[in-house]
Structure formats: C-alpha cells, structure tokens
Amino acid sequence: MLAQLSDPHLGADPVHGEARLAAAVAAVAALEPAPDAVLVSGDLTDHGTATEYARVRALLAPLRMPVHVLPGNHDDRAALRAAFPVDPGATALHGPGEDPAARYRYAVRCGPLRLVACDSIRPGHDDGSLGEGGLAWLDAALADDPSVPTIVALHHPPLVFGMPALDAIGLPASERAALARLLGRHPQVRRVVGGHLHRTAFGVVGSCPLVVGPSVHTTIKLQLGAAGYEAAPDPPAILVHALAGGELVTHVQPVT
Question: For the chain, what is the domain count?
Fold first, then answer.
C-alpha cells in the first residue's frame, strides 16, 4: 500500500501551512494497516529553501515507513536532494557523484508495488517537461522490472483537465502523446499519479488510469473553461493506492 500526499507548499502560509501538513501526516499515520511507503508528489515547499525543507522533514518525522518525494515547480532540485537523499535501496539512478542539480528520479519497491518517480520540473517555470532523455529513462526503468505492479509518478499530470489556466502549466502535448505510447509497452504500470492541480482528478493516459492527488495545503475551485482559477474551501485529502484482489485501487481519504 502506498499513501500519497501532495503540494504542501510549506512556507506559503506561515499560520496554517504547518498545521495542514501535520494533519495530513496524522491521517497517514492513522491508516490501518500502515502503508508500506509514502509519496509526497511535489511542491514540498513554496520557495525551495533549506529552512523550509528542514521543517518539512520535521513534520514528516512521525511517519515510520519510508517517505519518497518528487520535485515540483516550487522546489529546488539541489536543496531537495540535500534534504531528502534518494533511498539507498532505489534503482535506475545516475549513480554516485551526480550533479546536485541533475534530475531527481528513481525507482523503488514499496511492499508489493514498485514506484517509478519521474522529474518533470523546468527550473524557473511553472509548466513541466520530462526533459531530453526523460522518456528513454522511464522506458528503461520500466523494462528493468516488468513483473511487479507499478505506479509511475510525476508532479505535472500528463493530461488536460478542462481548466485552461492549469492546463497551460502541465506537460506539452508531444510528451503526453509519447508517454501514452510508452505506457502501452509496459502493462505492469497500473496507475500514473501526479499533483500540481490542487484538486483530485481522474483520467486515462493511453490505456493507463491516472489520478491526481489533491493539495494538502490549498484546494482549487472547479471552474471548467475559466481563464483563471481561485481557491476553494474544500477540505484537503490524501490518496491511498492498494492492491486488492490483484488489482490496484485508489481511495481518496479526507483530512480533518
């Protein structure tokens, strides 16, 4: 079982931000049975500073299972890697001595599941890209272990959702199409997961189900076709991905 929380944006709201992340952590800690691992799918901080990452680490500390993270467009790769070194049990890495600013991507086992985490950020930009070689890296990482049910994770969801202001800061259409074709070659991928949208949404990439995790910091109001977006008073939530009867099911668990 893999629990997912997304977009805590620590540092954006000094009054409520830490309390919201702490509540999400408490919701994960209360799950029975406990998850095999936790994924934080990007935008851990709002400004990418070492101080903000230190606070995120402190707030995640009550979790006794491995915590895996992804960079989001508000994150800084080097600072993220310094605060959250990739799990030593992970595979498909560049290897020792890599550039601290290099893409933060890896594959790791989470109980009966395998998590393949992709880096989709473009420093200085809100929109994303898997970058030169990113799809080839993912293809090789998936081919490395084709028998284990797998979740592919990236911050920028590879789909348009009908909210133009948010669709404009996703992945480019060419990469979305290429990713859909790639996933067709790897049927062990049971789910693509993302963040960035600040609300729960579902779709299909090629023939693979996709689910976007809501932000534990701020929910964005559903305004299909609107030119902009605004915050909504909806409660935050986490996702829980679990194998049941050989199939992967995703639950949305509100955070109180």
Answer: 1
- Secondary structure of 106-163 in the HEC alphabet? EEEEECCEEEEECCCECCCCCCECCCCCHHHHHHHHHHCCCCCCEEEECCCCCCCCCC
**pTM of the full predicted structure?**
0.95
Q: Can you read off the two tokens belonging to residue 51?
A: 């101080």
Q: Angle at Cα 77 formed by Cα 242 and Cα 15, nearest 5°?
A: 75
Query: Can you give the residue range of the structural domain that contains 196?
Result: 2-254
Contacting residues for 85 by C-beta, under 8 A, at least 6 apart: none
The β-bridge relationship of strands 113-117 and 106-110 is antiparallel
Residue 43's nearest CA partner among 11, 74, 68 is 74
Q: Kindly report, residue by residue over 56-108, the tens digit of the pLDDT.
A: 999 999 999 999 999 999 999 999 999 999 876 676 554 445 566 689 999 99
Name the DSSP class of 11.
T
The tokens describing 187, both together, are: 């049927």
pLDDT tens across 140-161, in order? 999 999 999 999 999 999 999 9
- 91 CA to centre of own chain: 18
Assess contact for 47 and 56: CB atoms under 8 A.
no
Residue 48 token pair: 């990418």
Q: Say which CATH number the domain at 135 has.
A: 3.60.21.10
d(CA 48, CA 151): 26
CA distance 69 to 195: 12
The two three-digit tokens of residue 134, written as one number: 């990113």
Q: 């049910």: which residue's tokens?
A: 149
CA atoms within 13 A on the CB side of 198: 23
